[in-house]
Amino acid sequence: MRVAEISRAAVLPQAGQPVEIREYPLPRMEDGAVLLRTKYSEVCGTDVHLQHGHLSGVPYPIIPGHVNVGEVVETAGHPTDQDNQPISVGQLVTFLDVNETCGRCWYCTVGKASTRCPHRRVYGITYSADEGLLGGWSQFIYLKPGVKILPLPETVPAERFIGAGCGLPTAVHALERAQVMLGDTVVVQGSGPVGLTAAILAQLSGATKVIVIGGPAPRLQEALRIGADEVIDITRFDIKSRKERVLELTSGRGADITIEASGAPQAVNEGFSFTRDAGRYVIVGQYTDLGDIRINPHLDINRKHLDIRGCWGSDFSHLWRGMRIVEKYGERYRWEQFITRRYGLDEANQALDDVAHWRTVKALIDPWQRSER
Amino acid sequence: MRVAEISRAAVLPQAGQPVEIREYPLPRMEDGAVLLRTKYSEVCGTDVHLQHGHLSGVPYPIIPGHVNVGEVVETAGHPTDQDNQPISVGQLVTFLDVNETCGRCWYCTVGKASTRCPHRRVYGITYSADEGLLGGWSQFIYLKPGVKILPLPETVPAERFIGAGCGLPTAVHALERAQVMLGDTVVVQGSGPVGLTAAILAQLSGATKVIVIGGPAPRLQEALRIGADEVIDITRFDIKSRKERVLELTSGRGADITIEASGAPQAVNEGFSFTRDAGRYVIVGQYTDLGDIRINPHLDINRKHLDIRGCWGSDFSHLWRGMRIVEKYGERYRWEQFITRRYGLDEANQALDDVAHWRTVKALIDPWQRSER
Amino acid sequence: MRVAEISRAAVLPQAGQPVEIREYPLPRMEDGAVLLRTKYSEVCGTDVHLQHGHLSGVPYPIIPGHVNVGEVVETAGHPTDQDNQPISVGQLVTFLDVNETCGRCWYCTVGKASTRCPHRRVYGITYSADEGLLGGWSQFIYLKPGVKILPLPETVPAERFIGAGCGLPTAVHALERAQVMLGDTVVVQGSGPVGLTAAILAQLSGATKVIVIGGPAPRLQEALRIGADEVIDITRFDIKSRKERVLELTSGRGADITIEASGAPQAVNEGFSFTRDAGRYVIVGQYTDLGDIRINPHLDINRKHLDIRGCWGSDFSHLWRGMRIVEKYGERYRWEQFITRRYGLDEANQALDDVAHWRTVKALIDPWQRSER
Amino acid sequence: MRVAEISRAAVLPQAGQPVEIREYPLPRMEDGAVLLRTKYSEVCGTDVHLQHGHLSGVPYPIIPGHVNVGEVVETAGHPTDQDNQPISVGQLVTFLDVNETCGRCWYCTVGKASTRCPHRRVYGITYSADEGLLGGWSQFIYLKPGVKILPLPETVPAERFIGAGCGLPTAVHALERAQVMLGDTVVVQGSGPVGLTAAILAQLSGATKVIVIGGPAPRLQEALRIGADEVIDITRFDIKSRKERVLELTSGRGADITIEASGAPQAVNEGFSFTRDAGRYVIVGQYTDLGDIRINPHLDINRKHLDIRGCWGSDFSHLWRGMRIVEKYGERYRWEQFITRRYGLDEANQALDDVAHWRTVKALIDPWQRSER
């Protein structure tokens, strides 16, 4: 007898439409599959973009929620983790949302850029609800055979990991691209979940000055809590004075490394302006197309001898490395404090609205929470 | 008694004015200095920009000519080369145009980005004619103490080295930034001296397909002569068909690496469009400010997971490495064939005009040539 | 009806024993599998070590032959290549000998070092003949589902590719580790197939001086043929004079990069002695355990500020990149000329003996050749 | 009138002899020079080796003491720091011990390996006492024109900086070579000043598990104090059990990165044994020749696909970056607690003996301290 008959899920039926609750039967278990009873999912900025239809190639209806924690309630065959240890009923796990990276195409083998594998499918984003319980805003999640599962260490509470959420692997990847050196000054543009975790990881990568440019105030307070040396509130300072402040903090040279995690196209112009000559500019926040900007190739790139690095997606290494960070530094950074509010499935539209309007740092989805209404 | 009393030089008196001939007394020799009897100088696109006033901070009047070959006619004290060998009268040498890199400032010591040292001065560009014979369009050139001198190997004729000219160290630096791997496809945008030598160096760095996009026809014939696998004539194909051609030649993926050596701002847009996901885009051609472009941070950089690398100036390593290449591969590539025409000092304005209008691949200045008029 | 009933194969029954001919039925085709009619296999130094039992973990009996070319004679399901193109009967292909790299373990995902994946199995080395036709010294080769197949371009004759053989991907990997810069001097220790192709690839990676140290004379003649600037015959010069020669050729500094491809443990000592300070030493030849050496950590590594890089195995990118090189530079380097002699299956023991005693550069196995006896 | 007439100094007259006190007149100030009243110097393991004559090319008699803090008491001309700020009387500064790196030779320009510049001279090591007050065990230190001076930030007490001492730039350089990634496990071999600061910097570079192998107990207590996750006492555990412990702590794989900072040649063998496949091994401790070891190139390097990186000396960037670290993390790591004891000049021989026998973590030299005897 199975743990349940059906799973309630919050479904995004179409771009531009509100989320609605649907019920699905539990899936038939393929060999190697795992069934999770969802503990927590989250709302990330991408989910807002999904609702607005800003991403191409999304097979609506979808069950959102790409980074999740769940308890293993069923296994079929002998699924294992990356250390070849068996996955067992009762374990608390997360998993890499990116699946079906083929390992065979040119990008996977020769290009060694698996985040550009054309075969990859993403839980909560590019799997359709018609294909199964393949997103986290659902009471159960079906992990297809081969999904890369990562157990939570005992010392990592589910709230802490989900507080870091999808910003964790994303920021790990961004910092990998950033190649911070001991003593560098790093500016992070954006104080959402990616920006805040990037600000943590910049410190853990050797930066001795970390400046967060963002807003509103509660997010910047979080930035200070997690160790940012300086915050600059975009709701209070204009572009010119923000640049002046960065130069003032960097002996007039500008940031050694800037990490764009805001998503605003114009942030790229601003970042170019205060990154030092021969510095590095990592773009991780431009996840959706919000329009063009004007740049000057001579002044912005060539004469600056600037490195600009786009950073797309993440792979299992980023999730694994991120988990090591949360395990080691959980008490220092307490990512669970990023969670501003918990929402039941019935409140998903409210959650999306709160995220869209920056009323939260991190919005948690608890599919088993009874509505507060 | 000295080798001569005075030196004729072609001087750019002011931005926007024609070059004029002036005469200067030979300089007093400081300890460690070297006096060259100029064999050849060259006209590069930068000289056209200098005449048009496109560069900031130029101390007009200047004697243009930043890459030069000369014969040592006087030395003071005991100047040496990088192998600690004495520099002797009669030697044929070139020298690094960039001088006074301080070795002490933050960029030189901590940033390890000496091409951004604020103290650097450049022969033919940022030294004034009022300071001495510090440019190559002159019968004699004064090498201040500490200028980095590089003897020409016996097997490298002066014409060959100057045929490569300032495009050589520039392209070596660009290829250093490009990090070509064996089997890569490299697109070079621009078929001037930098582009052509970049196309040579791409081959020598392991690329198995090198595509040059440029024009006009004589330059593309040079591109084919030096081994480009494909040339695309911008005077005959529009942007859309150029992109299609690149994709067709790269299994639909685009170039692994693109090197922008055209100087046209819009080339950057075009290059983004046909560089593959997770590829690399090196900008070396945007040496002067010719205006803005519009880009889309999401599509052009972030989703592509693109690396963009500005490449400014060059240091002695690029000149030294470039000389090794010319020494080894001189007979294969015969850079002297890039020289379309030789000009005396009296013809400098004609030379600038020919370069400005792409009538040459490489214009050589011979300060001792009697006018053909 | 199938193309044949049985396949003759040359089998190594046990370490220390001669090869013997056995017959096997053709395999049942799993979904996604491909059957090749072997065109050519080769004998590499590893095969000699396999016969002598120098490798651990070899599941004798085995069918040797890890790099092979064959004609597709059967397919099951829809196997494809890395560009997602179908593999069709009649195609001439090679394939990556390394199979079953899991793509899931820590080394594959986090370590990004798939050549250290514990699950990998290698055709001709770590597959047993009891498991099937999984080595190239056989008239037919069974490509299990998922084996990475690479079609030969039309312009690459089978002889040319097999002349390069397993030295090709191995040398591509070694050069990837070597990170040659334009103008570097590279010493290659060893003039067998890996060393010779490394000497080619060093040139194609930007080295302007390539010195091959090895022997005997016919191999060094091949080294000169493929463009080595200097060869040093170990049968004529002792260690001291070899070092002196390298220093003489490098302004007394030593090699920028040395690639050890000889397999002799003492070569490592010799290589340390003539690699320059802050240079790089790539060890690719020490494929089997032939004993210890004495080194001095202070003088050999620390004070030299030396980089030493072990290079184990290869992955599909190395095979793919190597194929691009052979495709582009086939006429220049004519790898088929490395083939000293062709052997039928009956002559496999003779072939092993000839390779063991350096009587060949490359020994080709043609499983369909009638014995010359 | 000058601040003093003479300077007392502790001088090492010859290899194998005890230190003796000598008096020197204050030097004539060259243009650009700076005179320091020494605040603190230190005793490092190198000083013990200097006394024992383990280094070649030392111009005895020398005044030891290569990393020092002093107060500026005289300047000549207009010396500046790397930010072009004037150096003024009264400032508390340190300086890079390595001087006269030429900036012109092949290693400085082409090799970009200035720590191998043949012209470099080192305060306290390769300057003779006959040349002046060029070492820190002296009441005054003469900074020649061009010595790279670094002011101590106001928040960095002299004791704190000297507690880190020469281990600071050395460890910064070692970590630069180590390229730690977020989530790595780093083993540090050696618990002296270099090892302890390396253990700090490994944490600050992203390592989530840092294991220090060393002794005796007081040093390991310091290791735990500064955040090592595990210490392994070499006086209590043999080589076999040390390796087992490392494997146990790393899921059986071994360390991602090992930093050798012990100086014992056999530590290299031990380190090879527990560094994981495709890991990295940085050798920074083998500063003097203490003999040979036996290694197996196949097992230790090739099959492991290991990177081994020698790390020699340091440059100004390492000192500058180290200062940023001490400035930022001074309160967390309190390097001043490494100082076990302060010695006057008269006690220099005692200090050397205490360092030689591991009775201290860091021995401070205060040239103005009256003898405690």
Provide a compact summary of the structure.
4 copies of one chain form a homotetramer. The first copy, chain A, is an alpha/beta fold and 373 residues long.
Please supply descriptive tags for the structure shown above.
homotetramer; alpha/beta; Rossmann fold; 2 domains; 7-stranded mixed β-sheet
Describe how the helices and strands are arranged.
The structure is a homotetramer of 373-residue chains.
Chain A: E1 6-11, E2 20-25, E3 34-43, H1 45-52, E4 69-75, E5 92-95, E6 98-99, H2 106-109, E7 121-122, E8 140-143, E9 149-151, H3 158-164, H4 167-178, E10 185-189, H5 193-204, E11 209-214, H6 217-225, E12 230-233, H7 239-248, E13 255-260, H8 265-274, E14 275-283, E15 293-295, H9 297-302, E16 307-310, H10 316-333, E17 339-343, H11 348-356, E18 362-365
Over the alpha carbons, how many angstroms does the gyration radius of chain A reach? 20 Å
- Helix-strand category of chain A: alpha/beta
Strand content of chain A is: 15-25%
Continuous helix count of chain A: 11
Oligomer: homotetramer
In helices, the fraction of residues of chain A equals 25-40%
Return the domain count of chain A.
Answer: 2
Round the mean pLDDT of chain A to the nearest integer and report it: 96
Determine the most extensive contact between two protein chains: A-B, 44 and 44 residues
Question: Any overview of this molecule?
Answer:
Four copies of one chain form a homotetramer. Chain A is built from eleven helices and 18 strands. By secondary structure, chain A is α/β, with parallel strands linked by helices. In chain A, helix 1 (45-52) packs across helix 11 (348-356) and helix 4 crosses helix 10. Chains in contact: A-B, A-C, A-D, B-C, B-D, C-D. Chains A and B meet through strand 14, strand 15, helix 9 and strand 16 of A and strand 14, strand 15, helix 9 and strand 16 of B. Strand 16 (307-310) of chain C pairs antiparallel with strand 16 of chain D, so a sheet runs across the interface.
